[in-house]
Amino acid sequence: MITNIVFVILMKVIYDKSYKVFFGENVLNHLAQTIINKAYSNVFVLVDENTEKYCLPILKPYLENFTLVKIASGEIYKNLQTANNIWDNLQQHSANRNAVLLNLGGGTLSDIGGFCAATFKRGIDFINIPTTLLSMVDASIGGKQGIDLNNYKNLIGVFQHPEHIFIYPEFLKTLSSIEKRNGLAEMIKHALINDEKLFNKIISTNQIDAEQLEKWIEKSAKIKIKIVNRDPFEKDLRKMLNFGHTIGHAVETFSLVHDTEPLKHGEAIAVGIICESYLSFKSNMLSKDEFDLIVKYIFKNFLKYISNWNNKELLKIMHNDKKNINSEINFTLLKKIGKAKINCYCSMELIIESLEFYKNFVPQKN
Ligand SMILES: NC(=O)c1ccc[n+]([C@@H]2O[C@H](COP(=O)([O-])OP(=O)(O)OC[C@H]3O[C@@H](n4cnc5c(N)ncnc54)[C@H](O)[C@@H]3O)[C@@H](O)[C@H]2O)c1
Questions:
Q1: Could you tell me the distance, in angstroms and rounded to a whole number, from the CA of residue 183 to the centre of ligand 1?
Q2: Domain with CATH 3.40.50.1970 in the chain
Q3: From ligand 1's centre to the CA of 134, what distance in Å?
């Protein structure tokens, strides 16, 4: 479990090239200064009902004048209608090309906020201020902005980096443990594809305190930054980040359509990590011991998704995945813990077998 204590680092610049990523306790001062220096004509702050309640009061003292734009939280609202609302707000409040949109929220909010900013009047600046664990280590970084279409994940979107990213771990104090676990899934994915040491550290820690978490956030965010920098437009290397996401996105889409309480992104990715680790193991890459370790850790930390999902429907969703090149379903698999292999293909039988493995697995009680 993740507990809260005082965060320690004042401020670090953890990336500094075409845009900067600031991290630590002092970042909001720096954000305020950045906004003054840029002399933006108008400042818009995008929030959902939770970030308005919990995060805006923390940010507000650092801003002079701003216009609040509010959207409803949840993946089901990451769509064209919400985007339209945001564009309307920008237009009604006379946003010009010198305006800036501050995305104060998790990945759902920064995906749609970034998309709207990148397309409004052919692009205005936006700044990500991630407030969930998942967005601090993943969604706020990398320049992928998008919305869902007919429940298909991120089908409409653009590549556009934010002006800057300000990671302020104190925001996590009000985040529920369910949402922290949600972020853990992407942190585990980063470790599995690129950092065996981090994976071993995470799985051997029972009680994650804030100081520990802060170190992992920094490490995990740096993994994403490193990969994205080498391949910003996902021609090859960046596909590594898709580990767990081919099946994960299909399960997330299925859940969005069929469940009254849909799975959260990280929960769906946890399912994807198990199934795609199964594919890695059965494709003679991942060893049995490593596979067992992954399965054990995920089931210890994530509730099993009980669903009578229909394999055919999941496969149909996977076939529609934007990552596919031809008609084959494209996977990123694990050669071992800490090393990923992109552009892997598996037989339909094996993919179905991996889904059945998940469905039939009976997690041990600890
Ligand atoms: N663009 C990318 O590269 C990328 C990468 C990974 C995930 N994503 C996307 O990110 C989304 C998931 O992001 P998420 O898990 O951050 O979800 P989210 O943005 O929906 O936030 C989860 C919940 O936490 C609440 N919340 C946010 N900050 C809070 C705080 N500090 N205190 C209390 N409550 C708070 C939100 O209101 C929401 O209810 C998905 O849409 C996924 O597709 C994008």
A1: 9
A2: 12-176
A3: 6
Judge whether 210 and 172 are in contact, CB under 8 Å: yes
The set of protein residues with a Cβ atom below 6 angstroms from ligand 1 is: 48, 50-51, 54-55, 73, 75, 78, 105-109, 111, 131-132, 134-135, 138-139, 142, 144, 153-154, 171, 174-175, 179, 182, 265
- Domain at 178-360, CATH homologous superfamily: Dehydroquinate synthase-like - alpha domain (1.20.1090.10)
Q: Residue of the nearest CA to atom 7 in ligand 1?
A: 139
CATH fold of 12-176 reads: Rossmann fold (3.40.50)
> Would you state the pLDDT for residue 366?
59
Q: What is the DSSP letter of 98?
A: T
Ligand 1 atom nearest the C-alpha of 111 is 1
Residues of the chain with CATH 1.20.1090.10: 178-360
Q: What is the pTM of this model?
A: 0.93
139-158 tens-digit pLDDT: 999 999 999 998 888 999 99
Q: Which of 87-91, 213-217, 280-284, 333-337 has the lowest mean pLDDT?
A: 213-217
Query: Cα separation of 60 and 68, whole Å?
Result: 11
Closest CA to 113 of 153, 155, 162: 162
Sign for the pseudo-dihedral over CA of 246, 106, 73, 267 = positive
